[in-house]
Structures are given as structure tokens and as C-alpha cells.
Specification:
The chain has helices at about 40-50, 60-70, 110-120, 125-135, 155; strands at about 5-15, 20-30, 35-40, 75-85, 90-95, 100-105, 120-125, 150. With about 160 residues, it is α+β, with helices and mostly antiparallel strands. It has a single domain, classed as Bifunctional nuclease domain (Roll). Strands 1, 2, 3, 4, 5, 6, 7 and 8 form an 8-stranded mixed beta sheet that branches. A hairpin with a 5-residue loop joins strand 4 and strand 5. The protein is globular and about 45 Å long. Mean pLDDT is about 85; it is low at about 135-140.
Length: about 160
């Protein structure tokens, strides 16, 4: 039996003002469930630049991966998010090379950034989504809180 999945989309990249820890805020298509995925600052920068499609000077590693895929005619199919212990995550990029399907495991921000650049969906297994909520990962986040700064390309360059 194939596990049931849920598609997520990136709603915001935020920085906690006190801890200076960036996170990606993902939401399911119904808008009822939110998953907060911690990323490092460089990954947050790559995500923001990719989402806004702005120029960053030198390319991010994710941009080079896209070029490599184009050159070798690989096709990205989707990114899968998987929770680990202690509010940590990993992602995996699923892609096709000819008729063969492949998967490569990535850090969360790398996988999310590649999903933006390849314009492919982000999936999470339904049982993992349920587990995220029960493991203490916030199911909602007040994006207008004094503790959270919404990141954009201008704020990333200022960090």
C-alpha cells in the first residue's frame, strides 16, 4: 500500500528576533495545517532569493544543481519532507534520469530551495504530518508577532 501524502507550500521565511533562528513556514493546500521547518541562515537566504526570483550576484549551490539537471536532462519530480527527532527534518529530492527514478537526501533548506527553483511540489506523508503536530512542532505561528521578522531579499542582504 502506498502511503497517503499531503502537498505543502512555502508561506513564509521568518527569523525569530530573540534567537536569530530562521524557519520556513509550510502550509497544506487547505490552509488548516502549518509546519515550521528550521533552516540555517544560508538556506534561508537561498530560499528567499529563489522565491523572489531576485539576483544574488554569485549563484547559490541550488542554482548550479538546476543547471546540472538541465545539462543532463534530469527531471525533478518533487521534494519530500520527513520529520526526524527533536524538531529536525530532512528532505529528499525525487528525480528522473531517463526512465530511472532516483532519490537524494538533503538538508531541509536545500530541499525546499530546490523545490522553489525546480517549481515542484513539496510532499509530506500524512502520518508524518500528524506526528509533527503531536511532537511539539507548532501547528500555527503568529506571523505578526513581535518575536518574528518576515524575511525578504532586502532583509537577507542586511543580515
Amino acid at each position: 500500500m502506498v502511503p497517503q501524502t499531503c502537498e505543502l507550500e512555502i508561506k513564509a521565511i521568518v527569523l525569530h528576533r530573540r534567537t536569530h533562528e530562521p524557519s520556513a513556514i509550510l502550509q497544506d493546500r487547505t490552509g488548516l495545517r502549518v509546519v515550521t521547518v528550521p533552516v540555517d541562515l544560508a538556506e534561508a537566504g537561498a530560499l528567499v532569493i529563489g522565491i523572489e526570483q531576485s539576483e544574488s550576484g554569485l549563484p547559490f549551490p541550488e542554482d548550479l544543481v538546476v543547471r546540472l539537471f538541465d545539462k543532463h536532462r534530469f527531471t525533478a519530480e518533487g521534494v519530500y519532507l520527513r520529520p526526524l527527532k527533536h524538531d529536525r527534518f530532512e528532505t529528499s529530492l525525487h528525480y528522473r534520469a531517463g526512465r530511472r527514478h532516483h532519490e537524494i537526501r538533503l538538508r531541509p533548506g536545500e530541499g525546499l530551495s530546490l523545490s522553489v527553483r525546480f517549481e515542484v511540489p513539496i510532499y509530506i506523508r500524512m502520518d508524518d504530518l500528524n506526528r509533527c503536530s503531536s511532537c511539539g512542532i507548532p501547528s500555527s505561528l503568529d506571523l505578526f508577532s513581535q518575536d518574528v521578522l518576515l524575511l525578504d531579499s532586502a532583509s537577507i542582504r542586511g543580515l
